[in-house]
Structure formats: structure tokens, C-alpha cells
Amino acid sequence: MKQFFGIVLRDVRFRILMWIIGISALTLIVPPAFANLYGEAADREVLKETLANPAMVAMVGPVPEGTYTIAVMFSHEMLVFMAIVHGLFGVMIANAVSRKMEDQGLLEYVSSTGITRSNIFGTQLLIGILMNIALGAVIFTGLVVMDIESFGLEGSMLYALGTALFGLLFYMVTLVLAQLLPSSDWSFGIALSLLLLFYLGRAITDVVNTDYSVIFPYHWLSRIEPFGVNDFVWLSPFLIIAVFAWLAWFLFAKRDLDDAYITLDFKNKTRRIGSYPRLQLTGMKVLITSWLAGMLLIGLSYGSIFGELDTFINENQFLAQAMESESGMDPILQFLSTLMMVTAVVGIIPALMVSARILREEKSERLEMLVSADISRGRMLLTHGIFGVVTGALGLVLAVIGMYAASIGVEDIGVTIGEYMLTALNYTAAVVLFTGLSMLLIGISKKLHTLIWVYYLYSFFVNYLGLIIGLDDAWRIVTPFHFLAEMPAEEMDWIAWAAITAIGIALGIAGAALFKQRDIG
Amino acid sequence: MSILELKNTTKTFGDTIAAHEVSFHIEKGEIFGFIGPNGAGKSTTIRMIIGALTPDSGEIFVDDQPISKDPHYKNKLTYVPGDVNLWGNLTGDEVINFFMKTRGYTNTDRKDELIEKFRLDPKKKCKAYSKGNRQKVALISAFLSNADLLIFDEPTTGLDPLMERSFHEEVIRAKNEGKSILLSSHILSEVEKLADRIAIIRDGQIIETGQLADLRHITRIEYVVQAKGDLETLKSLPFVHEFTQDHDSTHILVDNDKAPEFLEALHPLQPMQLETRPPRLEDIFMRYYEDRSDQS
Ligand SMILES: Nc1ncnc2c1ncn2[C@@H]1O[C@H](COP(=O)(O)OP(=O)(O)O)[C@@H](O)[C@H]1O
Ligand SMILES: [Mg+2]
């Protein structure tokens, strides 16, 4: 077990380290920033009021009672969002040390050298526990050392422990899925879907009635209310981790390697795949359809809270008037635009995943076979770019259709389906820009492509903070969202739209041209 | 006329010179063996030929045209990499059809014949295939084309002996159709039977090119002998190297071009059993470097 643990750890330690550094940096830069921006209690109370509207509750969770100290503000605005990142960390690493290793034949290989099932599972378990403890320890220490006003020991402990347990929960869920499903693509896809679906489910129930939210682990974190109530009791639902651990072990011990409880191989007749685009479409069918379904679901979830938004504004006429006189815009349109922006930012992910699929061809050395068959490299990359943009755009269209359909009964929203479509078109410019940049990076080198995710995370984060705490717009100047109109509240800005789209296309074409020339493999 | 020619092609990766001024040519209708130990630069050279890597310097010609000037030279070649990975969700049949379609090859009888010959179950998904079966899919796809140049990078590593023979038969058939074949390997004996000419590469440099018969001066043959007389007396002969004794026979390594002299010397010792082992690559290198150090 010791040797096996050593090998596996050596394989994933760099990734784990990067995640720990990334997550703790993302977490720990926030308290000083909040202390700077919102040092005044009065400012925080105003912010708290604005966060009570359903659009914000859907994004960050219910507003806690009691004084809105810097620490409470931090945990309220960060917990639910950071939980997604912690969950993703768990999902990625769990998949890497379980189903992915199995797919690569590594588990079979080590089994033949006398390493038992319990050694393998013990290692997987231990890595999950240790990495989350390490991350929790860094965050806890960081919060304590920074010693910012209102960040108590107990609260810091609960924040670190809660997020670590959340990460471990999804680690364990992924281990269970790794036994049930036939390949690492499936276990990753389903685990990620659960992570996002729970977030959406919580968004709806948090707005409608938080009693229903208790079925979603995200809400357990909200209920702990670190730095406020410090309710230790809400750590106890995480005991379910033990059940999942047992279940994963039970399922793992009882099956053959490379076998699965759910097989998804349909015996279909030979498909006619005669071109590269067809080849890729066949390979990405599941990826694309599940993202499109996801985007529709995001639209439906957000659309379903528009009614609550309307009620909220009618009940808070004072706030509504304040918002209207400040910006000259209908407050409900402002909230809607906020949610639309979040949807647009999420909608970029599938476009990037589709365009990056060509790297999978390269890493598996299939690309050189395709190249030797005289399929143009530039055309292959353009195929991915176009598929990426089309997937992204379709996702946005489905999302706005979802919003429209789910809010059809709400009278005070005067947004027509045409305006919704125009909004989707507006944000398609951002999809084009991101995809183009991704293609450019692929064209330069396969390693450089990771930068697109760094840029994406940056864009996501500054947008998110811009929306919830009004982070200065200057931060967004290097993202397309600074320039694009915030539709539907603002009028479509065709010049910005055309400029960003054109830049995206130019980057993509440059990427394809470079890709033709660079060494592959 | 040569179908392929490399002139001083060099490729470096950081500090590693993977290929250093590699030059050789392949005639039309010729089987060309490209031999070298692991890490010698075979795959790097082949990847330059198929256009996956761009040479740092030097030039590659296909049909006497520099490939940098002919964007579609690749429809004159097909290639099977050493480590074949396929699309896990596609069946073998779908992959073969895909490559037939992209290469515009339509003879499905030939496809059925090859599938039969290589005993492939084409209805299975590629992720369920073993390494050998993936290799078969790629080999079958390569034979299903009208290309004039077939390039195989260590093609038989995953195949069992029976399939290896099928592969050799197909290579010879392609040659008889007038095609040229580039066959890389780290095992000399594997290529020796098939190749009209070979090139030997080591540390990125071609050290010998020519017909195997012409390379006799650098190969050594291992004789396994049992004799009534005392074989020890042979030890002192200049063309005898490495002399080892196992329980009942003696292994003697002899310069290939000195076989008559050796047999003459052996005859008086009344040999009862005589076997030969094919030249091994390592022995070639050893002799090559000994010769070089003698000269200097
Ligand atoms: N993409 C690459 N990056 C860095 N080094 C490489 C790369 N490809 C090959 N090499 C190095 O070049 C040398 C030749 O490798 P290769 O051509 O694969 O040899 P062979 O196919 O003869 O075994 C080796 O030392 C190998 O490590
Ligand atoms: Mg090689």
C-alpha cells in the first residue's frame, strides 16, 4: 500500500498542489479586499439590503440574520460559489486516481504485482482525505494569520472545515460513480452535472423556500453561517460522506476491473463517418447535448425566480425607486440582466471544451494519423472552433428560451422573445472571442492552452464580484463583458458587438494558420 | 527514380538532437528497412516525413518535389504509428471506413479480405481492443489506399507471429504492386528478410546505408558449435570475437565476411553440430565502433 500510495501521489501531487494554491489564493485575497472596500458598517448594511433580492439570493444564497460584519459578508458571498470550486477539485482528482487510472490499464497492472483491492481503495480514500485536510488547513491558517477584524477562530475553522467537507463529499460521490459507470468520461461528466444541478436546485429553493434547500449540500454551508451563528450542527449532514465511502468500497470490491454496473454501450449499426467534422461530432455528442440541456436548465431555473423578483420589487418600492433613479432603468430588468450575464459567462465553458477537444487528438497521437491522411490541420482546428461557437451560441439561445418560457406568467417583465434572442446574440460575441483566443493558444502550443482557463477564471471572478459587491468596472476592461451591452436592460451596442466578434474571428484564423505550421505530437 | 528522399534533415528538441543530418532515399518498388535501437530517432524522422514535425534544416522530397512546396504530397503516402490509439467509441469497422473515405478508396472486397486475413472482429468498439487489435485496424486502413509510399513505424510490436506473417505477405504484395515501403524496427532480423536495403540509425545519425549483403563487413554471425576437437584453438583467430561456453555447446561470434575462413578453420576440429544465429543490432554497433576506434 505504501508504494502504491507513493506512486499515485507522485502522479497527482502537482495537480493537487496547483488546486490548493489556486483555491486558497482565490479565497484569501477576498477578506482584505472586502475590508478595504466595505470597512464601514453602514456601507455593508446597504449592500446587505441589495443582496436580499431574489436574483442575488439565487447566486449566493440567503442573507444571514444579524450584523453584517466583514467576516459574515465574506462567508455569505463566497461559500456557495467557492463550494463549486472545492467540489470540482474533488471531482477532478477522484476521477484521476480511480476511473482514469483504470481506463489506462494502470489498476490492472498494479493488481498483477500483488497490490490488493483494499490497498487501491485505501490509497484513493487517503488522497481525498489528505488533500482536503491540507486545503482546509491552508485556508484556516490564512484566515487566522491575516487577523482581519471580525474573523474569529471558530468561524475560520467552520469555513475551512465546511468547504473541505464539501470537497470531500464530491470526491466520494465521484468514487461511487467511478464504480457505476463504464469510463472516466462518464464518471466525470455525471459528477460535474450533479455538482451544477445541485447548485441550480439550491438557487431555486433558496429563493422560493429555504426549507427545501436542505436537500442540497450547498445549503448546509449556508446554514453553518460561519462567523455569525457558527452552527456546528450543520456539519453533521456531511456524515453521509461515510456512507458514500462505504458504498464505493462495496461496489469496487464486488466488481471486476474494467467492468461497470451501468453499461452504456448501445449495439448500434455501423455509422457512416466519412469526414473529420462527422468524426468529431460523433465523439462529442454526449458532451454537447448534456451542455445544451444544462444551459436550458439554467434558463428555466433563473426564469422560474422572476416571479419572486417581481414580488420582491413590489414589496420594496423604496429600493426599487432608488435603483431606478440611480441608473434610470427598470430594476427588474437590471436583475434580469445580472442573471443573463452569469448565464453568458457559464455558456462560454462548453465552447471552450469543444474547441479544446483537438488537443485530445494530439495527446493521443491520433492527430498524426489524421495529418498523414492529408486532412488539413488548419481545417481541423477551424472545425473545432466553429463547433465551439455554435455550441456556445445554441446554449445561450436555449438558456433565453428557458428564461422566457419559465417566466411567461410574470406580468411585469416586458421582455419579448425577440429581445431575448437579441440578448443571446449579443453575448455570442463573448463566446466567439473566447473560442478565438483558445484557438490561437492551441495554434501556438498545446501546453499554452491552459492559459485560456486562467483567463476564463479571471473573467468569471471579476464579473461575479462586479455583480455582487460592485467591484470596479476597471477590472473587467480586459474582458469582453466590459464592452458588451448589459442586455436586456441596456440597448444592444452593435459596434462593440461587431468589434469583439471580429477580434475573435481574427484570433481564431490566426490560430488555425499557426496550427498548420507548428510541430504536433 | 526515388519516391522519397531526405537530404540532411535535422531535428532538435531542446538539447536532444533527435535527428542529425539524416539522409537516405527510397526507390520506387523498394522495401526499405530503417533500423535503430529505442530512442535512435526513427519516429522523429518518420514524423518529419509525414509532416507532423518541421525539420530544423534539410529538405524532404516526395516524387522529387520538396514537400514544403507540395501541400498535398500526403495523398501519396499512408502511415501507421508505433503506438496506435483510436477513437474509443468507434468500432474498428467505422475507423477503417473513415480512413477509406478520407483517402477516397472504395474497394470493399479488398477490405473484407484484409479483415479476414488479420482475423479482426470489426464490430467491436476500439476501447475494447487490445494493442494488437488496434494495430491491426491501423494496418488494414493503411493497406486500403492507392498511396505509393507505405510507412510503418515498428509495425509488428503488438502482433503475434501468425499475424506478423500476414503482415509480411501484405508488404510483399504491396511491393509487387509497385509500391514503396518504409519499415522501421529496432530488431534487425525482423526487417532483414523483407528489406531490399536498410539504413541504420543511432543517436540521431545514419551510420550505414545499403543492401544487407553490402553491410556484411559490419555484421557478425553467431555460430553455435559442438565438436569433437578442442574449439579453444579458434579463440586466437582475428575474425573470432566473443567466445562463450555453455553446458554442451560453444557460442562463437564471427565476422560475417570471414565465414569461409572460419569454416575452414573449424573443419579439422570435426564439428558434429553447427547452427547459426542471425546478426544482432548490438553486434553491428559494437563492430562499427571497434572499427572506428581502430581507424583513429
Ligand atoms: N516531442 C519530443 N520532445 C522532446 N524529445 C523528444 C520528442 N520526441 C522524441 N524525442 C527524443 O528524441 C530522441 C529520438 O526519439 P524517437 O525518434 O522517438 O526514437 P525511436 O523512434 O528511434 O525510438 C529520443 O531521445 C527522444 O527522447
Ligand atoms: Mg519510435
From TrEMBL, chain A:
Protein name: ABC transporter
Keywords: Membrane, Transmembrane, Transmembrane helix
Transmembrane feature ranges: 12-34, 78-97, 125-145, 157-178, 185-204, 232-252, 286-305, 332-359, 380-404, 424-444, 451-471, 494-515
Entry keyword annotation includes Transmembrane helix: yes
Record lineage: Bacteria, Bacillati, Bacillota, Bacilli, Bacillales
Superkingdom to which the source organism belongs: Bacteria
From TrEMBL, chain B:
GO MF annotation, one: ATP binding
Family matches, as PROSITE patterns: ABC_TRANSPORTER_1, ABC_TRANSPORTER_2
Source organism superkingdom: Bacteria
Keywords linked to the UniProt accession: ATP-binding, Nucleotide-binding, Transport
Segments forming domain ABC transporter: 4-228
Keyword Membrane: no
Family of the protein in this entry: Belongs to the ABC transporter superfamily.
Protein name: ABC transporter ATP-binding protein
Source species of the chain: Salinicoccus halodurans
